[in-house]
């Protein structure tokens, strides 16, 4: 499958050019330039000085302002033991090393208390939970509508280029433990950081085989009033979620095993690294794989707002669907970055919905959709 590896390199060159980095624009592009140079070729870019005119850039850095503006608003707070919501964790009630896809426990409460929990959970509190405001599903225009005047309802140059308004606008408030595992979304994503920094790892859709997408049993965290602890339970009725198997930051204890298990990722081309700072917008094209970590501001939190625009299900979608339908071994006997791997013969695409109807694919992408 030398041709597939050549495709990885060619797409990387087309997306990054000679710099090897995500292209940075010093100011927002015209709609025509954005459409021609980034949306049409499915190419990410980082836009500086994009939201400096938003009142949010100054007012949201003060907890008192946020608590006053949202004093009577009930919001959804996602709780996990470690800050990694919608991620793979050891399955409950099993002595094996099997994994499951765990969704967070969602707690509804007044915003001032939610913010207090986010900040107090920065080092994991006595209940062993980390809080992250990451409701998605258009939460900014519903739960946080009191803040609407502090930023734009959409990104004008992006809306004009894409020919539509965003389907959803989401607000994210977390601490240094908040992390989003590798995944992709069927949306054009305009991601604006307001406070702190977001650290993205990016891979183009053509690298699908390197993500080792497999079916995992779905599970969820519940909260026990008796113990005050989160408990992981498998969903009933049982269902499976296709999810990326790769953890790009393995612990020293598991690193060798992870590299051996996922050689196409660890021994192949490095993911693109991109840090988005306050006042900047990352254009994340549809179907790009991304992993997100964050660095909080001096107050201990990171705040971002993102705009999800519907993607066009055009010929590119058909190409990507065809590519992921190709059987590719989970390891290979070709030299990747000078490393030899043995061919195990297993098919990493066996669990993918190869030619599912568009509506079904979109529904699948929303199981654990992330930043």
Automatic annotation (TrEMBL):
Alphabetical list of SMART domains matching this protein: JmjC
Record domain JmjC: where: 131-324
Entries under InterPro entries matching the protein: Cupin_8, JmjC_dom, RmlC-like_jellyroll
Superkingdom of the organism of origin: Eukaryota
PANTHER family per the UniProt record, alphabetical: BIFUNCTIONAL PEPTIDASE AND (3S)-LYSYL HYDROXYLASE JMJD7, HYPOXIA-INDUCIBLE FACTOR 1 ALPHA INHIBITOR-RELATED
Family: Belongs to the JARID1 histone demethylase family.
Listed name of the protein: JmjC domain-containing protein
Organism: Vitis vinifera (Grape)
């Amino acid at each position: 499958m030398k041709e597939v590896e050549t495709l990885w390199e060619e797409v990387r060159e087309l997306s990054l050019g000679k710099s090897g980095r995500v292209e940075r624009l010093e100011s927002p592009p015209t709609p025509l330039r954005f459409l021609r140079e980034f949306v049409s070729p499915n190419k990410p870019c980082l836009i500086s000085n994009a939201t400096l005119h938003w009142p949010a850039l100054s007012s949201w850095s003060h907890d008192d302002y946020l608590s006053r503006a949202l004093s009577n608003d009930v919001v959804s707070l996602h709780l996990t033991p470690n800050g990694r919501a919608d991620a793979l964790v050891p399955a409950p009630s099993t002595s094996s090393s099997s994994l499951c896809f765990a969704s967070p426990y969602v707690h509804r409460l007044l915003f001032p208390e939610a913010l207090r929990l986010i900040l107090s959970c920065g080092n994991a509190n006595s209940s062993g939970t980390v809080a992250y405001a990451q409701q998605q599903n258009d939460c900014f225009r519903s739960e946080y509508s009191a803040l609407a005047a502090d930023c734009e309802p959409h990104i004008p140059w992006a809306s004009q280029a894409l020919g539509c308004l965003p389907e959803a606008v989401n607000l994210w408030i977390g601490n240094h433990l908040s992390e989003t595992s590798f995944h992709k979304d069927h949306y054009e994503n305009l991601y604006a950081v307001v406070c702190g920094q977001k650290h993205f790892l990016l891979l183009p859709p053509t690298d699908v085989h390197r993500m080792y997408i497999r079916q995992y049993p779905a599970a969820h965290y519940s909260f026990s009033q008796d113990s005050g602890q989160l408990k992981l339970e498998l969903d009933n009725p049982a269902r499976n979620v296709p999810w990326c198997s790769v953890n790009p930051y393995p612990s020293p204890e598991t690193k060798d095993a992870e590299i051996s298990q996922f050689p196409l990722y660890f021994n192949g081309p490095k993911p693109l690294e991109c840090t988005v700072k306050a006042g900047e917008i990352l254009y994340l094209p549809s179907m790009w794989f991304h992993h997100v970590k964050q660095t909080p501001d001096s107050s201990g939190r990171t705040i971002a707002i993102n705009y999800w625009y519907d993607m066009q299900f055009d010929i590119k979608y058909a190409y990507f669907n065809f590519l992921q339908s190709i059987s590719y071994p989970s390891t290979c006997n070709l030299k990747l970055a000078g490393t030899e791997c043995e061919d195990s013969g297993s098919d990493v695409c066996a669990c993918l919905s190869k030619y599912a109807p568009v509506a079904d694919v979109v529904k699948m992408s929303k199981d654990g959709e992330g930043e």
